[in-house]
Amino acid sequence: MRYSSGAMIARVYSATAIGFEGERIEVECDASNGLPTLLIVGLGNKAIDEAKERVRSAIKNSGLEFPRKRVTINLAPANLPKDGAHFDVAIATALLLVSGQLQHDALNGVLLVGELALDGAMRPVRGVISHAETARRHGHTTIIVPRANAQQALLVEGITVLPADSLRDVFLHLSGTERIQPATPGALASPTARLQTDLADVKGQEQAKRALLIAAAGHHNILLSGPPGAGKTMLAQALASILPPLTRQEVVEVTKLHSLAGDYQEVVTARPFRSPHHSSSHVALVGGGQMARPGEISLAHHGVLFLDELPEYNRAALESLRQPLEDRMIHISRAGHRASYPAGFMLVATQNPCPCGYAGDQARECSCTPVQIMHYRKKLSGPLMDRIDMILEVTRVEPDKLISKESGLSTTDAAGHVLAARQIQQSRIVTSGMPNAHLTSAMAADAQLARESKALLDHAAKTLHLSARGYFKVVKVARTIADLEASKQILPIHVSEALQYRPRSVDY
């Protein structure tokens, strides 16, 4: 604490999330003689303005004294928009400092976040991983968080996490009366607890299972097209069970995104599987809103974004996926701010061949007119379809196979193949260990394509009128097929199989 011209000034540090990153916020508190009042400035929203009443009641009900002076709180930098109630604890602590109930030395190296209830209890806040990373980046050694946020904050290494239950706990710790014990990592939920669909439960569809295996091994986008009841949705749901487990860095990134979206307490250990309804808006998919929160494509980061009945989605929403499918990032620009979030999702989509679903079906006649079929397929633009690595026609399963005891490829076997292929991809120094779907064109050009394979691919590119993007997608899928067979070179048989997953005609 310091004194200046008869006024008392205190400073406490907190943080706020700006997109995927965080910014340190300096909570300045000035107390001077005058009519008792509390004013909060610094471009805060309504939730911050209402902190005046929460903090006042929390201090009083914690057995502490609210300063009877004219108090001004400034959240600096003042030109940065701020959102949320997580500044409550920092504001309350600044008031205790400026009134002399705490000493400023007690706050050395400490950053505080947390919402206060009227009785002084601390409630969890969103984005605590971002706050902990911000604290570490700015040299803070300790962060005080609500107890419910402690496990998420512990994912950030190199900083001590102190879990508090109330404002009084914070006061007793900072005054040296009763220290808060640092949080320790708890047992994480097992990723296997969420698995529901086994590939063995899907009868028939061996070609589709093979396609899912390739897609999972290389993190390729895939579209399953076929009549209703063919098992497209079940196949897509089973895909999540064969993906490799998240690495520690991926756990941090995924949990951070979910925390920013409002999942305050859970540490995400399983790969996300997001399945938004087809009525979802453009903002719901890509993110946005008043403070540019992450959308479904970011919540599916390092996991699966499942879009069932793709043509039923809003055209604008689908077209908004084109840029993040390429860049694996989404940049949201608004009049007052700009936010960026990672979006390294794997797109898994399904569609019917026509509105009634039976165009080309051998067992049931289609009731759609040619105009209806054309209009239905035009809902998906060429540029969007060109960004999908694999397109597979799924046919109906014969009735005698539906109750067959033959299981075919199981989730356990498929997961083993996928993990082995991913390990091969991670061992490549030239590609920095990234999955094949994420390779740049330059990296794909150096994918050890055999001479015969290149000749076959060049001929197919002219015959199928492949775009440059489509050409490299075939190379990447072929590289994944080669990895599944532990082949160092991409052989003609690998290219031939990869070409099967490109559309034969551009009728969309």
What does this protein structure show overall?
- The chain is α/β, with parallel strands linked by helices and 508 residues long.
- 35% of the residues lie in helices and 18% in strands.
- It is built from 21 helices and 19 strands.
- The strands form 6 sheets. A 5-stranded mixed beta sheet has the order 1-2-3-5-4. A 5-stranded parallel beta sheet has the order 12-15-18-11-19.
- A hairpin with a 5-residue loop joins strand 7 and strand 8.
- The longest helix is centred in the last third of the chain and has 17 residues.
- The N terminus is likely disordered.
Task: Name a few traits of the molecule.
508 residues; alpha/beta; 5-stranded mixed sheet; 5-stranded parallel sheet; disordered N terminus
